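Model: You mentioned two targets. I'll fold them one after the other.
Researcher: Yes, keep them separate.
Model: Target one:
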Amino acid sequence: MAKFRIKVHVEFVECNDPINQEPTKNNDGSFSMTISEQDAASIDMCEKSVLQTAYPTIREAVSSHLSEVSKKSIRKTHRRTGSSTKLSSIQS
């Protein structure tokens, strides 16, 4: 049975970006949020901001993972049963 490693990376980077307290998807697929210096000094606001930013990242990662697991399961089933059904229609 396969095993899966889950990796999470969170970083706080000082920047000059305008404050944006809604998670924004970046070109690399990650999500980010820009908070004020005051919020960055508050443990409660840091925690809240990290959780708000992480939520869409988590949802997207879990969705992608489960989609891949489902595709693998379908392929294994077709190999065991010798089915000749094309997977291209399933994969789209």
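Model: Target two:
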Amino acid sequence: MGYPTGTFGPSPLGETGPCQIKYDGVDLGYTKGGVKFADEVMKTEITYDQTGETVQNTVTKGRKSGVDVPLTNQQLSLIESLIAGATIDGDGMLVKSSVGYVGRTGAKELVLTIMDGAAPSTDPDATLVMFKADPTSKIDWSFDNAGQRITMVTFTALPGDESTNFGEMWRVGLPTP
């Protein structure tokens, strides 16, 4: 996981509940265990020999943002794009070693929209968008009579690299047309 736990935050979304998850425009379906978004600014603390360990200043080094999505009741066709090295063939899903996979090349837009009853909210402020989300899967499937198979996917926000969105990672709320 690697991200601090949290939700969209106290403002502007307020209290949150379940959400719809779309990756590259495709609804990923059901979750079990809560979808968690986190954002952390990483800093270096500046200290001086003369003042011991007292922090005198800080310098921002970057930020780490991501969403943990515990998918359940998933169809292979939906999770294929989320598992590096996976392909669907006539017999099912085949997963091969994925050494050297470059996440930026496959990163797509991730959209989380808070549910309003049984449907996604139409309030633009109930939406969180990650512009380039790189998925990493962690499969933990139990084959028993009491468990539920969960495919945990962590989406890491990558900064935009085009001149029109350079450095942009995510936003809460949809822009006004």
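Researcher: Noted. Anything on target two?
Model: The helical segments are 76-79, 103-106.
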